[in-house]
Amino acid sequence: MTDIEIVADGLAWPEGPVWMEDGSVIVVETAAGLITRIRADGSKHRVATPGDGPNGIAVGPDGHLYVCNNGGMICHHVDGLTFATADAPADYETGRIERVDIATGTVERLYDVVDGVNLVAPNDIAFDAHGGFWFSDVSKHRENYTLDGGIFYAKADGSGITRVLDRVGANGIGLSPDGKTLYAAVTFERHVLAYDVIAPGELDLANAFPAPGRVLAAFPGRQTVDSLGVTADGTVCVATVLENPGITSIDPVSGAQSLFPLPDLAPTNICFGGADMRDAWITLSTSGRLARTRWEKPGLRLPHYA
């Protein structure tokens, strides 16, 4: 196994790592409602306190952070480990997309309703080259029923949001290097799906009934999938949790898989950075740590950095 360095610990279910040009990494602490910057020396600095459940984050064209907030979740603590669930806490109201000024920590609610229907639990986000962003909205469990999410596209200036797909339990989401393919990791179906992007915010859904999306990869047993990253050559790197925890690299053409194992039951996210884009930061969520390693190939440089 390639050497793994633990950069920071004591984090409350870290997710959504974003590499910054100054060498720091910003993560969310979903179980604590925080956004935290981690310096190269492991020191931690509060960026913002959105509350509830900040999840995936990305830097937008204005240099602000765009935050998928799942509205809060119930966590269980067992033998020093944290386990997050999709169960809604008693004070849950709605999920939302927020914009955060990194310099001041100011949190602005950008979207929480689409066509009169509340967002459920926004989870992961990916900006395209046009200044808009795709995001996933996973389900949220109530006592006797489940609220369904989907896949959405929105404008960064707050002027428009579209529900592109209903009832898709997508978690991780990302774009191919040419922006022509959208990838979605569907957690409990244990699939990574691929969709053709035909225009900003539009997928080719012709002949999509009853199951839109091509299956890029499927996982057996009790493996589930979380968030994902993409390398410069288009390899999809998805977090696999529970059984065989790690980051699984998937060839976008053949679907061939290669596992990079990690010492945590829920390595939830990966991001890339550094001068050669081969530094990989991975959130080890049950143990509350941020790890760093060297990846075998450069990661995709995302549209916006700060």
In short:
The chain has no helices and 31 strands. It is mostly beta strands.
Protein described:
Helix content is 0%, strand content 52%. The protein is an all-beta fold. Strands 20, 21, 22, 23 and 24 form a five-stranded antiparallel beta sheet that branches. It has a four-stranded antiparallel beta sheet with strand order 1-31-30-29, with no helix packed on it. Strands 2-3-4-5 form a four-stranded antiparallel beta sheet, with no helix packed on it. The radius of gyration is 17 Å and the shape is globular.
Number of strands: 31
CATH architectural grouping:
6 Propeller
- Helix and strand content put the structural class at mainly beta
**What is the overall silhouette?**
globular
Mean pLDDT: 94
Strand content: over 45%
The largest sheet is: 5 strands, antiparallel
- Rg, nearest Å: 17 Å
Please write the CATH class name.
Mainly Beta
Provide the number of structural domains. 1
Report how far apart the termini are. Answer: 32 Å
Low-confidence runs: none
Given the structure, what is the number of helices? Answer: 0
The named CATH superfamily: TolB, C-terminal domain
CATH topology: Neuraminidase
Q: Share of helix among residues?
A: under 10%
